[in-house]
Amino acid sequence: MKRTLLTGLAASLIASQATAFDVATMNDAERQAFRAEIRSYLMENPEVLMEALGVLEERQAEAQAQGDVNLIATNAEDLFNDDHSWVSGNPEGDVVMVEFIDYRCGFCRRAHPEVTELVDTDGNIKLITKEFPILGEASVMASQFAIATLQKAGPEAYEQVNQALITMRADITPESLDRLGQELGLDTSQIMPHMLSDEVQTVIADNRALAQRLQINGTPSFVLQDQMLRGYVPLAQMMELVDQKRAAN
Question: CATH 3.40.30.10: does it fit domain 79-248?
Answer without folding.
Answer: yes
